[in-house]
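Re-run with default settings, no changes from the original entry. Doing this only to confirm the output is reproducible before filing.
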Amino acid sequence: MSDSPKIFNVLFLCTGNSARSIIAECILNRVGRGRFNAYSAGSHPTGRVNPYALALLKRLNYPTDGLRSKSWSEFATPSAVELDFVFTVCDNAAGEVCPVWPGQPMTAHWGVPDPAAVTGSEAEIAAAFNDTHRMLNNRLSIFVSLPIVSLDAMSLQKRLDDIGRTRDARAPAAAG
């Protein structure tokens, strides 16, 4: 029996797996290093990471090598990594019928507005991506601070759902 603490596997889902889920994956792999392994996927992946998401991640010094838009089916096979948590970060993916995940992970919906849907100037689009990062970073900072191993399943599920209802996380970008 190992004395090392459990490392939790977390999957972030979005429809296209090009922006929000990729950003969440990068954030958790940074703030949860050594405690969490984060992954992302989409129900209908676009096949590429959004260039604004990549630019933001590079500017904030996140590793971006190996990031790719991929199908959630990669994580629904018997040989896939056993997931502990699955979070939807877009409303479309939350409404879809998800595969059965190996390991029966806990799930929650943490929807945030889609920065890839924002139109306007380069500055307005960049601001939307910055807001997405801020919202997800806030939620994931709360998540990594949870005493996961000491909470019973019902208490943990309530906390996960509460994180998804974090008011700041759904606030629109400030105008101006």
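The CA atoms of residues 8 and 36 lie 5 Å apart. The helical segments are 20-31, 51-59, 91-95, 122-145, 153-164, 167-170.
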